[in-house]
């Protein structure tokens, strides 16, 4: 199926898609802040510049859009036009994601990937894990 708009129009549309401060990312940040966790954004010194970094817990959070990162859900479906381009593009994004996750783990960071289609459930699980870590750190500090 041919695209219904010109390549110039498509280029302008695609250029307006934001890479950071997306609605899913803002929702996760808001939930973490409300739960009492403080974080840094897009930390330059870490592989892949994770969306959210909790240095105290050595935890990196990647908030992935299903389409752009090739999630296996209805939102992650490839377009029917220009399939070769999109297949290569999404596969490249997924490979880069895996490299960055491996590099973060290699240097001792925990990594959570939160998918846009499961954002609420994934965020709740993340907050539970971080609360456990916070309790362990508090208990350890009391013992010392």
Task: Map the helices and strands.
Elements: H1 7-15, H2 23-34, E1 40-41, E2 52-54, E3 59-64, H3 66-69, H4 83-106, E4 110-115, H5 119-143
Parallel strand pairs: 3-4
Antiparallel strand pairs: 1-2, 2-3
Helix pairs in contact: 2-5
Features:
alpha+beta; 12% strand; Endonuclease, Chain A; 144 residues; 4-stranded mixed β-sheet
Write up this protein:
The protein is an alpha+beta fold. It has one domain (18-143): Endonuclease, Chain A. It has helices at residues 7-15, 23-34, 66-69, 83-106, 119-143; strands at 40-41, 52-54, 59-64, 110-115. Strands 1-2-3-4 form a 4-stranded mixed β-sheet, sandwiched between helices.
Which CATH class is shown? Answer: Alpha Beta
Number of helices: 5
Q: Tell me what the CATH architecture is.
A: 3-Layer(aba) Sandwich
DSSP helix fraction: 40-55%
Low-confidence stretches: none
Distance between the termini: 67 Å
Order of helices and strands: HHEEEHHEH
Q: How many structural domains?
A: 1
Mean pLDDT: 91
Relevant CATH superfamily: VSR Endonuclease
Morphology call: elongated
Quick synopsis:
The chain has 144 residues and is an alpha+beta fold. It has helices spanning 7-15, 23-34, 66-69, 83-106, 119-143; strands at residues 40-41, 52-54, 59-64, 110-115. It has a single domain (18-143), classed as 3-Layer(aba) Sandwich (Endonuclease, Chain A), CATH 3.40.960.10.
